[in-house]
Amino acid sequence: MDNRQYRYSYQSCVDVCIQNATRAACQCYPVAYPSYTEPNNWTETPFCLSMKQDADVFLNKSICMTQMITDKLHHCHMTCQPACKEVRHHYNTFDTIWPPKVQQLDFFRQFIQDKPYEENFSIYSQIIDLLSMGNSTEAKALLYQTRLIEDNFAKVSVFFTSTNVVAIEDKRSMSLTTLFAGLGGTLNLYSGISFIIIVELIDLFYRILFINYETPTMKKSKMDQHSNV
After folding, report:
1. Do the beta carbons of residue 176 and residue 109 sit within 8 Å?
2. 46, 28 contact by CB (below 8 A)
3. pLDDT tens digits for 179-221?
4. In this structure, how many other beta carbons lie within 10 angstroms of the beta carbon of residue 33?
5. Which of the residues 60, 65, 81, 107 has the least number of beta carbons within 10 Å of its own beta carbon?
6. Concatenated DSSP letters of the chain
């Protein structure tokens, strides 16, 4: 772990548990579970489904990863404890085509043109050239035929449906003081026992035990006192 502080949650505990088990057994990170280690270690331990590996290594690591997730999932769920405090946000997810066709040429000029990867999107340069020559019909047809920008770029927007936040926190509901107070109130309610009665009962038991278990020396001393009187 690096110096950043991560809030504990039940799901993150399960993720780290499976991640550590897979890394130890397969020498790779499972793709479906996030890595909480320093970025420098990512180059030392590759992802299990990295396409840079040889085919046989890729196949062996993918089988190992699947087997570890299947074997350790129940163990990790049983090992991890629920968080003392959990915060939940209500949200909705949806997807749409982005950017729309009418904005793709502007998107190309702003984010792709004059970039190292521009050659992979050269068709948009052809569309711009066609428009500059006044051939808008062919440019429009070519634009609607290609999906390079939609297939290679994504935009994620996060909006909360409500400002209300659900916070679940475990707290001690009864302290030692409230325990004795509730116990005393219950005894007083159902049997009429109060603290004074308890003290008197203790004193009564003490007197009974003291009288019944007097030593002979103590009895002789009392008899001498009575005879002297």
Report:
1. no
2. yes
3. 878 877 776 666 666 667 777 888 888 877 776 665 555 555 5
4. 19
5. 81
6. --SS-----HHHHHHHHHHHHHHHHHSSB-TTS---S-THHHHHS-BTT-TTS-HHHHHHHHHHHHHHHHHHHHHHHHHSPPPSEEEEEEE------SS-GGGHHHHIIIIITTSTTGGGGHHHHHHHHHHHTT-HHHHHHHHHH--HHHHH-------EEEEEEEEEE---S--HHHHHHHHHHHHHHHH---HHHHHHHHHHHHHHHHHHT--HHHHHHHHHHHHH-
Share of the chain above pLDDT 90, in %: 22
Distance CA 156, CA 79 (A): 34
Contact 8, 83 (CB under 8 A): yes
Domain boundaries, the chain: 10-83, 91-171, 176-215
